[in-house]
Fold this sequence. Notes:
The chain is of the alpha+beta class. It has helices at 12-32, 45-58, 69-76, 96-105, 141-161; strands spanning 35-40, 62-67, 87-94, 115-122, 125-134. It has 5 helices and 5 strands. It has a 5-stranded antiparallel sheet, with helices on both faces.
Amino acid sequence: MVSTHLFGTPLGASRFFLVLLLLISLSGLSMASDAHVVKISASDFRTAHDGLIEAIESEGLVVGSILPFRDMLARTAVGDGEIPYAHAEIVQFCSGQLAAELVREAPAQLTLCPLSIAVYTLPQDRSIVWMAYRLPGTGTSGRQRAELLLQRVIKRAAELSRLRW
């Protein structure tokens, strides 16, 4: 007797795995566009980092934590894998007002808080600083406000980074 419960065919399992593989590969394509990245030339990591903190605080927000991402990779690296960063930190912060709006719209949107912005440099050119954040989406007014907040913070941080205090 031949089982036909997957997709109604004896070869359903192989079709199932082909469909699964296709979905996984398509999701990989969309992940690349889930981040907004800004290139800041003629700066250095510490100046850009300080500019980011200042930009967040100028919005009336408090930095919740700073995650030393490059250091974490260096501590936990397995094998001889090279770390792709000269410096890398993730700065987390949240707006209580924005968080309340987001969770009122949909309780699962608590996953958007805290907001975070990564700041990093690459070993091959430490005079270019990169800032990146995950796109919160625009499906609700709270998500749109989160996107505008992240854009303002990044823009201000980039301006301050070029000043080299």
